[in-house]
Amino acid sequence: MKESQLSTPTVSKLVRDMExxxxxxxxxxxxxxxxxxxxxxxxxxxxxxxxxxHHIKEAAKIALDxxxxxxxxxxxxxxxRQAIVDKLAREYNLQYSLNEIVVSNGAKQSVYNLCRALLDxxxxxxxPAPYWVSYDGIVKMVxxxxxxxxxxxxxDFKCSPEAIEAGITERTKFILYSSPCNPSGSVLNLExxxxxxxxxxxxxHVYVISDEIYQHxxxxxxxxTIAALxxxxxxxxxxxxxxxxxxxxxxxxxYTAGPEWIAKACTKIQGQVTSxxxxxxxxxxxxxLAADHGPTHDMVKAFKSRRDLIIRLLEEIxxxxxxxxxxxxxxxxxxxxxxxxxxxxxxxxxxxxDMSLFLLSEAHVSTVSGVAFGNPDCIRLxxxxxxxxxxxxxxxxxxxxxxxx
Length: 405
Ligand code: PMP
Ligand code: GLU
What we know:
Layout: H1 13-17, H2 22-35, E1 41-42, H3 54-65, H4 78-92, E2 101-104, H5 107-118, E3 124-128, H6 133-141, E4 145-149, H7 161-166, E5 172-178, H8 190-200, E6 207-211, E7 236-241, E8 254-257, H9 260-273, H10 279-290, H11 294-315, E9 330-331, E10 341-342, E11 348-349, H12 352-363, E12 365-366, E13 368-369, E14 379-382, H13 387-402
Parallel strand pairs: 1-12, 3-4, 3-5, 5-6, 6-7
Antiparallel strand pairs: 2-8, 7-8, 9-14, 10-11, 13-14
Helix pairs in contact: 3-10, 4-10, 5-6, 5-9, 11-13, 12-13
């Protein structure tokens, strides 16, 4: 073939149209600036700063020594799926069969599997905002349409059932949300879940994907799942995983619990794409789920005290409106009071994207713009870091914002 006949190499339309994950992008920008020698405080990435508990690491080492180095069943080792079934029975009195559980390479893959398994182009997914950034990215990636329902700090970032209902059409396949919520830290209480379920009972074609990855990082002392409410189990898929509550982000272990026909579809997809999650990691996860949760409780105590600290420090900044998160390890202040202002260095802050970049360049604190989460008035700060860094970051933010006039 002549050179002139070769077309310019291009990546697929899918990739060209896809947005990069905003959380990972900010984290990688922070890493690059650090590598250049700048003293950056990274509050962008949502990842516990604790190490994986000792007994879970030991279980993985034992599994390796015992020869758990081969492929597992695509939907996960029976031992781990049983531990998940037991956990769901223990915590919510919900009875699942082993065939209703699918273990994946992180809860992110669980989200992807479900979207791939359930959505055709033109289908709609209700995303109460603010939503986790990858929901929007993945729904679009499979050709479906996100229907975003806005909320604000005035409603503690919770959408009313009426507002959600107004977004439902005959093309709606499911509603997808996280509680505790990334990025707002809001937690749906039993009454709010009951109201959501009551509305959904009027729309039997709408499924629920309930992302409960922050289940344990909950300062209200109680986590509720909509799956446990009357009539909801057969139309709900719970997503959960090891990353947050067990400080196991790098292990890449998530799972779903939901109707068998959906589990089968996810397993079929995963059978072509990954063949399943890492064998010895699954053995360790089974131990983690069944063992005493002391280390998790210790982490939650630390997150709660850091939450109180960051609220107190941010509340001192004049034009910030600060929410009071009940879970996860994010805070989502409304920064719109600063929009339209310019710094002494000539930085004009029009919106949350500008604010996030301004704080990175002037305060050397990395955050994530709320635009990526469907709320253009806010920025997300992860406080999964030390008290000293939280204090330093808050002071830098206060100083940088004081230059905006
Ligand atoms: N859901 C939410 C709400 C998250 O914040 C995250 C980020 N960790 C995930 C899912 C994905 O978790 P994993 O690391 O298990 O893929
Ligand atoms: N979920 C975390 C976050 O929101 C980790 C990064 C990611 O997976 O997007 O920051």
